[in-house]
Amino acid sequence: MSNIFFTSDQHFGHKLIIDFESRPFGSVEEMDRVMIEKWNSVVGTEDTVFHLGDFSFLNLEKTREIVSALNGYKILILGNHDRSRGRNWWLEAGFNEVSEYPVIYKDFFFLSHEPMYMNKHMPYVNVHGHIHSQKYEGKNYFNICVEHWDYTPLSFAQIRDYVVVNEEG
């Protein structure tokens, strides 16, 4: 049985993100290696991963190497740092699907790179990236940025259970 995972904002190859976000890595090479290991420690080859943007700052060849090293069927929702390269560039880099726009998953989860406007009457939870170590208040937002989750993708079940617990609390 395959599982569904979510993650965002690895910024592979982006040396400055280590300082910007106080990431616990001594070098960009260590950061990239650890994030690949953590991805593959939870994602199997038959699983699907929704990547919610800002994947890589590397060239096509190096980005393709990373994408091919990662387990799973990979769907990219373009982030602000991905859009300049265009949809076809990311498909050529090895993503199985690429969306320029947010996606609704399971009629309840609104998947986007940047947090989207959500009022308390909307029936969705916005699973998003972009804001790194910051958090939006309210039960309608779930920040999937790697800084919050030990640089590891989260499963659909983990997010669903987290949302249910917080709605009850």
Automatic annotation (TrEMBL):
Gene3D superfamilies: 3.60.21.10. It comes from the Bacteria. InterPro entries: Metallo-depent_PP-like. This is Phosphoesterase. The lineage of its organism: Bacteria, Bacillati, Bacillota, Bacilli, Bacillales.
